[in-house]
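Final report, closing paragraph on structural work. Over the funding period we assembled a curated collection of sequence-structure pairs, and we close with a single example.
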Amino acid sequence: MRTEEQAELAAVVRSLLAKRADSAAVRAAMTSGSGFDETLWQTLCEQVGVTDADMGVAETCVVLEELGRSLAPSPLLPTAIAAAALLADGDPGGLLERIAAGEIATVATPDHVLFGAQAQIVLAYVDGILVEVAETPVKVPAMDPTIQLATVAQRVDPLPAHVRDVALVLTAALQVGGMQRALDDTVAYSLQRVQFGRQIGSFQALKHRMADLLVELELSRSAMLHAVDGLVDAATDAPERAAVAAAYCTEAFGHVAGEMVQLHGGIAITWEHDAHLVLKRAHALGTLWGQPHTHRARLAL
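Its predicted structure, as stored:
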């Protein structure tokens, strides 16, 4: 359950994104030189405080869920992961102050560096120690145009377990927001599209399919919130909660996104429609930190 303050935060961010991150704005941002709306990022930092020191993981997940709903490209995910790493493993260089001031940060992994080419602060674990990377990450093509990827040549470690679990939960919040967007757009389309003289949303078979999507969405949100509580409370089973959220939300988002495409019919496969962005976002987020079966395997240990 969200607190009253968290619900107000969600409303504020949703209102901002409705004005600044509609479909046209998202497409303009993802094809810009930076790959995201720098003015929107500045507003989120200065007016909403998404990088403030008192913005905990629960509040960050609230913002990420709304960003996921809008599909807006944003460096908040890697910046929040970097901040979590610094909080856990030390910040001798005062990097958290720079993050609080709005600088973009990220943590390099052997496979990718989220928003690496855009980040002012690039961290990595090398032989188990968190260090700042001097090398400038090189941007690489990504299937999802709303998520910027880069690589570094130097050897770096995977995220340690305590940071990985934070990354899984923050990513799950983005996935839940994306599922909400997929369902909202699909329901809206079903009330507009007329076939055989009736709105297609009145057909029982489609009602059942959309009801199933709602069930998947709510179960995903519950798993994500349970994992958030685990991190906030430092619960002994926090790693298991994070693994459950990662596995379930990844598979659910993939299914919900696929159903969005199917229930929109032919228009959903065109570049002009946002369904393809939802589908690409689902695939991209699902491959960042391991496949669902790898998270389920952790639960069996």
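The chain has a mean pLDDT of 95. The longest strand covers residues 121-126. We thank the funder for supporting this effort.
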